[in-house]
Amino acid sequence: MYKVCIVDDDPSTCRALRRLLDAAGYQTTTHQSATEYLAAPAIATPDCLLLDIHMPELDGLSLQTKLNETGDAPPIVFLTGRGDVPMSVQAMRAGAADFLLKPVDEDDLFAAIQRAVTERKQDLPPSNADEEKLRAHLALLTPREDEVLDVMLTGALNKEIAAKLGIAERTVKMHRARLMRKLDAKTLLDLAPYIPLK
């Protein structure tokens, strides 16, 4: 079974996630800081790293950067209680497999881990069904909606999008609402899977 490493500075979160994953048949280890994880023997490299963002000393995004620099980063699923669009953009552009918010639905968590270990982004074939579905959604956007989406993915506010594109803020809101419907997204974080395709 897959090895999943949980890195979270909250002991109760580590315990709860470990119990959940152990019961599902995963082989789990836990670390309560990024520094502790980095000090672990290389032989313990997991199939998936379940990583919090807000941690003392070295946060989750910084750990991701360090692991990418070594060229041997495991697939990462971020799980955080305080995430926002710029964070998800940064994480996904750096190769994260998924970006989930606490409290997380068990099925969503298991699905994210499964995707992370079986569909590493650099190995995804162009015909991958999930990617094709995302591209089909993107194809529904008008050119202006696509422009609005590109700026949205930087974490910009409506007024900043309006200024950049030279359109009224209410026009931005209209395009934003339409593209969210077309992309089947209820929140901005739901747009994270589209980041690697832009």
Describe this structure in words.
- The longest helix has 14 residues, at 169-182.
- The protein is of the alpha/beta class.
- Helix content is 48%, strand content 12%.
- It is built from nine helices and five strands, in the order βαβαβαβαβααααα.
- The mean pLDDT is 87.
- Helix 3 links the parallel strand 3 (48-51) and strand 4.
- The chain has helices at 11-23, 34-39, 60-70, 85-93, 106-118, 129-139, 143-152, 158-165, 169-182, and strands spanning 3-7, 27-31, 48-51, 76-80, 98-101.
- It has a five-stranded parallel sheet, with helices on both faces.
List the helices and strands and how they pair.
Elements (H helix, E strand, L loop, with lengths): L2 E5 L3 H13 L3 E5 L2 H6 L8 E4 L8 H11 L5 E5 L4 H9 L4 E4 L4 H13 L10 H11 L3 H10 L5 H8 L3 H14 L16
Parallel strand pairs: 1-2, 1-3, 3-4, 4-5
Helix pairs in contact: 7-8, 7-9, 8-9
Structure at a glance:
With 198 residues, the protein is α/β, with parallel strands linked by helices. 48% of the residues lie in helices and 12% in strands. Helix 7 (143-152) packs across helix 8 (158-165), helix 7 (143-152) packs across helix 9 and helix 8 crosses helix 9.
Broad shape: elongated
Topology order in helix (H) and strand (E) letters: EHEHEHEHEHHHHH
Work out the number of β strands.
5
What is the CA-CA span between the terminal residues?
Answer: 34 Å
Put simply, the count of helices is 9
Alpha-beta content class: alpha/beta
Helix content: 40-55%
- What is the gyration radius calculated from CA atoms? 18 Å
**Main β sheet profile:** 5 strands, parallel
Biggest sheet: strand arrangement? 2-1-3-4-5
- The share of residues in extended strands comes to 5-15%
Q: Can you give the mean pLDDT?
A: 87
Uncertain segments: none
